[in-house]
Amino acid sequence: MENLADYKEIVDVIRESGGDGFKYCYQCGMCDTLCPWNRVRAFSMRKIVRQATFGMTEIENEEIWRCTTCGRCAQRCPRGVKIIEAGVALRRIATEYGVFPSAVKPVRTASASLVGEGNPLSEERAKRAQWAEGLSVKTFTEGMEILYFPGCYLCYDPRMKKVARATASILKKAGVDFGILGPKENCCGESIRKTGEEELFRRLARENIKTFIDNGVKKILVSSPHCYHTFKNEYPEFMVNFEVIHISQFLFELIDQGKLELTKDYEKKVTYHDPCYLGRHNAIYDEPRETLKKIPGLELVEMPDSREDSLCCGGGGGRIWMETPKGERFSDLRLEQAMATGAEVLVTSCPYCITNFEDSRITLEDQGDGEILEIKDITEIIAEVI
Predict the structure, then answer these.
(1) Going by C-beta distance under 8 Å and a sequence separation of 6 or more, which residues neighbour residue 214?
(2) Closest CA to 110 of 185, 193, 231
(3) According to CATH, what is the number of the domain 104-253?
(4) What is the CATH number of domain 261-385?
(5) 104-253 shares its CATH topology with 261-385
(6) To pair with 302 at 20 to 30 A between CA atoms, which of 23, 29, 47, 134?
């Protein structure tokens, strides 16, 4: 470790983050068997946990940055080892010492942008609500039913702005009383926390919480599973509890209550991808599928590795900002699985998944793999059929 951190520091930080359950690991290797990295290259989470047990982890090694926090290993670990928490704790140490391999350098850019502009994309805070231009979306005021919190990617990324606009059009069609806070919002902070930037996460969270309280927010609708997870499961650490609902759940409610009528056919074969932070981390599997099943003409088919066993897109744990070489991208594998079902459209409900799938679609097209399926957010399909 070149004296960058000692045994006591590693153990203390891991215990602080997730208890000392890591020491109960008996090296069965289940985590390595389940880890999606081992579909594309050799990687051993078991080895990292073992080394951490004895304070021998090399924090300057790129390996501690590979985990996407997808949750497959933690879900199936027979000893309940806090694998994700242990990995994030090691990243906290690396961050404190300023040790970043070349592939991780983009995280530093994202951190600087989060500090300066409240988003990881180096975009201006003042432009956070530009996605809604021309849609007559109101600014949230106290007494409104719902705050719609699109998240950073839907506010700034050209592809994902289409999802935000589709969502707003659906909400207006259904007569939902909602508004946005635009430049008053910060990134939820979920992904930067998973890279070890604990203090930055806390700063973002406190500022968001103050904004929500000052504006009388009680119910938050989100498009990103990462925002959902953070607001619902992590912000309560700050002694607050907002009602949080993901758009895939809300769409199901609106249709089930008769507030949205699906009037047009969608004559396509569709397969659905479970985002890690919507599925494994928060057990939301049925609502998006039931919503798709209600669409006239739509044929829903399942991929291998679905629901609890869904294959990660590779974007979690802050890796959406890191460099992943071609040939090592889980999203390439996922698209191949989707195409093997004969589906024409791959549907999901996560900005990270869509971003990675769109990149993989381009890669596969460049390889001459024939006609590649469409990538859609569930809201984009609903917007087409109402």
Answers:
(1) none
(2) 193
(3) 3.40.50
(4) 1.20.1050.140
(5) no
(6) 29
